[in-house]
Design goal:
Blueprint lengths: L2 E7 L13 E2 L2 E2 H10 L6 E6 L2 H10 L18 H11 L6 E4 L9 H13 L4 E8 L8 E3 L5 E3 L16 E12 H7 L7 E6 L8 H12 L12
Parallel strand pairs: 1-4, 1-5, 6-10
Antiparallel strand pairs: 2-3, 5-9, 6-9, 7-8
Helix pairs in contact: 1-2
Length: about 230
């Protein structure tokens, strides 16, 4: 079994400039993502995919490989992660069985999570495994929208927010930490989430989209409410 890890890190970010290299103590989010991949025994190679020389240099110093910078068509705001990954895979001269996607902006994960997810994927004979977190509030049944007449209505048809919390169905959200998909599936179906995708339930969900998210992450770490691989793993 051959496992490829890819860390996507585009340098353009309007809401939080250079969020991929924002520093937690003395390490960037990019370095943290690469270290998780490097420290997982089952990962054979880890590559950076970026449009920025600065990011590429940081990645190489941390132990990741790089083929070249992304083309302009894969470096704009509308570029999809799946297209970035397919482009990189097609340029490699080595074949892999699994692709592990590690986004720098979702840093709460460990090497054992990767191993556990591949074990889960193989046990269930699935095509992919994705990390998720249970959502309690706001539950989708309680969400509202406004119709064309300006009235409040349920966001989801045939639901009501008046259902007691204990009777609401369990729902989960992707937390962005880890996606693992068979390379064959990625190349054929162009998706990280094929029909046969099994969930890997995690306890945390901190995704860095804004500076406020990053401040929250730092506060949680400083209060020992969360752990980030690379600071307390030794």
């Amino acid at each position: 079994m051959k496992v490829l890890a890819i860390v996507p890190a585009r340098c353009g970010s309007k809401g939080f400039p250079n969020k991929n290299i924002a520093k937690i103590k003395d390490k960037t989010l990019l370095e943290i993502a690469i270290k998780v991949g490097n420290d997982c025994d089952i990962v054979d190679d880890i590559y950076i995919s970026t449009d920025c020389i600065e990011y590429e240099n940081i990645a190489k110093k941390t132990g990741a490989k790089s083929l070249e910078l992304r083309g302009e068509n894969l470096a704009n705001d509308t570029a999809k992660s799946i297209d970035v990954v397919v482009d990189l895979i097609n340029k490699l001269d080595k074949e892999y069985d699994y692709l592990v996607l590690l986004q720098p902006t979702s840093p709460l994960r460990t090497p054992s999570d990767i191993q556990n997810m591949i074990n889960l994927l193989e046990k269930n004979k699935a095509d992919a495994c994705v990390s998720v977190v249970k959502i309690d509030e706001p539950h989708p049944y309680k969400l509202k929208s406004i119709d064309d007449k300006g009235y409040v209505k349920s966001f989801l048809d045939d639901t009501t927010s008046e259902i007691p919390r204990q009777l609401l169905p369990e729902v989960y959200a992707l937390n962005g930490s880890i996606y693992i998909t068979k390379v064959k599936t990625i190349l054929e179906d162009k998706t990280f989430l094929p029909k046969k995708t099994v969930p890997y339930i995690m306890d945390t969900n901190i995704n860095i989209d804004s500076e406020e998210d990053f401040i929250f992450l730092e506060a949680m770490l400083n209060k020992n409410k969360i752990k980030i691989w690379g600071f307390d793993d030794d």
